[in-house]
Specification:
The complex is a heterodimer of chains A (about 300) and B (about 325). Chain A contains 14 helices and no strands. Chain A has about 300 residues and is mainly α. Chain B contains 12 helices and 14 strands. The chains are: A mainly alpha (about 300), B alpha/beta (about 325).
Chain lengths: ~300, ~325
């Protein structure tokens, strides 16, 4: 092979060397490479997705989980029953009180709206774990020794988590409807809009958790971090209870939580909720900003911190 | 063209906090050779490889790989080198073929090329039959061969192998040696390997660098390294202890040192085969009887211990590396 290579010209700059290597590749019958910064992104995303859907137990658990949560929180922990169990109350009064408190006709519908963001939060929280595993088992080093973009490695982890969580959210929504969620306001547009909101939140949250795992090779630390962030993000939001019945200091915290804006937007679109935190356009704005900022930050940090 | 240096390292340094893991090493690897990197645990072998393969940023110094600067064009360097890391990096949940194709995608090799090439490589490492089996069902030897195939997917000019035979049985080790020789001879690839097994380095490598405490202590061909510790040892037994002919033996060309004890002469020579004949002739011409003769070639082990000392090294390790090592050994022995 090398015998017949054209005589090497006297090259001086690195750019000339790169060009020459490119010519040599053609000569050695090596293929033309895709050098775009996002090459390999789908391959990395797909790898994690294959691992997910080819593993029946994991797939089953992630599908059954939302059912359990909806059943437990929506039916057993029914805050709406405080209203309906008042002695001598009429159905019309119950509906009016529900509408006033939850912005919709039943607590279950209210909760189902929040459950969509809830499942996304819990899936996103574990997006960082697979970074930790890849580092532990050496796959990360393999990927880092190839010319794949460091940003693509991080974005692949985020994307697989986004796709998984959106599929789970769709299942939660289906089950909620079966269990009696109010569908009066469902239109193709309101459902599509809700999933755009959920996509933005999934992207932002997954980026956040992947970012926290960039340097970590220790799953205990990572688990502790997930628990530390998960529950406050959930409870200091309007996922389970309306803001109006929270103490004043908590209301302030809730307004800084992006999860609240996702719930607010989803409820406005799917349930026609009237007790809003912010106008719909503002919800979209907050989440787009959240997703944009965190994903850019994740990519920038990956250039610096993903290598050993 | 074949004698040109494909790797030029100058003053490469890596500092981890207070520890200088690699302390200004300089060497060259010629195109088409098998270059061995030997050294005790923690000497800086893997750190050097990690810097050359751009996994680790160097703290100082430079390296030019195939004309490309590792600092300025890490991505271009990644395209011309192949890496077979120490640990098993293949994804257990995917098949062998899926793993190689994933590697190809990460290099940006189009699928219409990578598919036939992946099958060709699997055939090369004799894994064709197992291509569609999950890696979790592979034996240690099969995993190692798969890692090798993955390292070759991007048509590298230079292949880095970090302890390619660690924990393997004799059969697999022999097979890996066979592939390494084939890559050099048939594909004219340059190979850069680290190993702990000295007989491996001796039989495979054209040149060897011995690294210790982050410094290169010796560099040369296995023969040169062995010769540099003093050469072959000939022991000649004689029937009568008188007369002493040590001085006469010392005059034979190539003899470096003669010691006499009761009925024996211990002779150090650069080329033992030639000297031993001359010694026998000399002893007989003096009217003495040779009762026995032995010729010992120095092994690379002796040369290695001479240069690095025989103290056992306690390697600094962290939880992550210890875990990886356990996994590697566990998988290799399957």
């Amino acid at each position: 092979m090398t015998d017949e290579l054209p005589v090497r010209s006297t090259v001086t700059t690195q750019e000339q060397v790169i060009e020459e290597r490119e010519r040599e590749r053609t000569f050695r019958a090596a293929p033309k490479l895709n050098k775009s910064p996002i090459h390999g992104l789908w391959a990395l995303t797909n790898r994690d997705l294959v691992k997910w859907y080819k593993n029946p137990i994991q797939l089953f658990i992630s599908l059954i989980q939302p059912v359990v949560w909806l059943g437990l929180f929506g039916k057993a922990l029914n805050f709406g029953s405080f209203i309906s169990s008042q002695p001598g109350i009429t159905q019309a009064e119950i509906n009016a009180l529900n509408l006033q408190t939850f912005g919709t006709t039943s607590y279950f519908s209210f909760l189902a709206g929040g459950m969509l963001a809830f499942i996304i939060l819990f899936t996103a929280a574990f997006a960082g774990m697979s970074v930790v595993w890849d580092r532990r088992f050496g796959f990360m080093n393999k990927a880092l020794s190839t010319p794949v973009g460091r940003g693509a490695i991080v974005t692949g982890k985020v994307l697989q988590s986004v796709i998984r969580s959106l599929i789970q959210a769709a299942i939660v929504l289906g089950i909620a409807v079966v269990f009696g969620m109010d569908t009066t306001y469902f239109t193709p547009l309101s459902i599509a809009g809700s999933f755009v909101i959920l996509f933005l939140m999934a992207f932002g949250l997954s980026s956040l958790f992947v970012m926290l795992a960039l340097r970590s090779a220790d799953w205990q630390t990572q688990m502790a971090m997930i628990n530390l962030l998960n529950l406050p993000l959930l409870f200091a939001s309007n996922a389970m209870l309306p803001i109006s019945i929270m103490p004043g200091w908590l209301q302030g915290v809730v307004k800084f939580n992006p999860v609240s804006y996702a719930n607010d937007a989803v409820r406005q679109m799917l349930l026609g909720s009237t007790t809003t935190l912010a106008p719909l356009w503002a919800d979209f704005g907050v989440l787009a900003l959240f997703a944009g900022l965190l994903s850019v930050l994740g990519i920038v940090l990956s250039w610096r911190f993903l290598s050993k | 063209m074949s004698q040109e240096a494909i790797v030029k390292v100058e003053g490469l340094t890596k500092v981890f906090g207070p520890l200088k893991a690699v302390d200004g090493v300089s060497f060259e690897v010629e195109e088409g050779e098998i270059f061995g990197f030997l050294g005790p645990n923690g000497a800086g072998k893997t750190t050097t490889i990690n810097m050359l393969t751009t996994l680790l940023r160097a703290s100082g110094g430079t390296a030019i790989i195939d004309g490309l600067d590792i600092h300025r064009h890490p991505n271009e360097v990644r395209r011309v080198v192949g890496v077979v890391p120490q640990e098993y990096t293949a994804d257990e949940d995917l098949t062998g073929l899926q793993n190689i194709l994933l590697c190809a995608d990460l290099y940006g090799i189009p699928r219409d090329n990578s598919k036939p090439h992946a099958m060709e490589l699997l055939r090369l490492v004799e894994l064709e039959e197992a291509a569609d089996r999950k890696v979790s069902t592979y034996s240690g030897g099969m995993r190692r061969r798969l890692e090798l195939a993955c390292g070759l997917i991007n048509y590298p000019k230079l292949l880095f192998l970090d302890e390619p035979t660690l924990g393997l049985d004799v059969q697999t080790r022999t097979a890996v040696w066979k592939y390494i020789k084939m890559l050099k001879e048939e594909y004219r690839m340059t190979l850069f390997l680290t190993t702990h097994y000295l007989e491996e380095a001796d039989s495979l490598c054209d040149r060897i660098a011995i690294i210790d405490h982050g410094h290169i202590v010796r560099i040369g061909s296995p023969t040169e390294l062995k010769a540099s510790i003093g050469g072959d040892i000939i022991v000649v037994g004689v029937a009568e202890s008188e007369p002493d002919i040590s001085t006469d033996i010392g005059k034979i060309s190539l003899v470096k040192e003669v010691k006499k004890s009761d009925h024996e002469y211990r002779i150090k020579s650069e080329v033992g085969e030639e000297t031993s004949i001359q010694v026998i002739d000399l002893v007989r011409s003096k009217g003495l009887h040779v009762t026995k003769i032995s010729l010992t070639k120095p092994t690379l082990d002796e040369a290695y211990l001479e240069f690095t000392g025989s103290t056992i090294r306690e390697e600094e390790s962290n939880k992550q590396d210890a875990f990886k090592h356990r996994v590697t050994m566990m998988r290799a022995r399957r």
